[in-house]
């Protein structure tokens, strides 16, 4: 049996100013058998679509070169311009562009909601990005009301 390898690619805030503050630097490329299977693309505070798009192109090229069988996308809408902790300035239409870029990879894709502060402005971001892909989709969880606690 041959061991399967995976490639981890991440576009995220520069770790010197963004959570988790200690990992995610570009020089962290994996070690041992996993060397060069990790691609961190840290972005500076205030990143707009043009900078993000360049990193996305780089990430998609790495994913295509790896010939992935499946793609798992961890959607962090803390990249949305109106997220209160965002260091990014992505707009609603940018999430559709992300989805379109991932669609062009032609790989079955699983979207998983990861980060961001839920608001009426950001609520549609995951579905905007995911609307392009049709193979597998996890719908974002919507806030709900809990039933009142029973009184005994």
Concise overview:
The protein has 152 residues and is α/β, with parallel strands linked by helices. It has helices at residues 49-66, 92-103, 125-130, and strands at residues 8-13, 38-43, 71-76, 109-115. Strands 1-2 form a two-stranded parallel sheet. Strands 3-4 form a two-stranded parallel sheet.
Fold topology:
Layout: E1 8-13, E2 38-43, H1 49-66, E3 71-76, H2 92-103, E4 109-115, H3 125-130
Parallel strand pairs: 1-2, 3-4
Helix pairs in contact: 1-2
Explain the overall architecture:
The protein is built from 3 helices and 4 strands, in the order ββαβαβα. By secondary structure, it is α/β, with parallel strands linked by helices. The protein has one domain. The longest helix is centred in the middle third of the chain and has 18 residues, at 49-66. It is globular and about 40 Å long. Residues 133-152 have low confidence and may be disordered.
Number of strands: 4
Give the strand order of the largest sheet, numbering strands 1, 2, ... along the chain: 1-2
What's the tally of helices? 3
The overall pLDDT, averaged over residues, is 79
The description of the largest β-sheet is:
2 strands, parallel
| DSSP strand content | 15-25%
Shape: globular
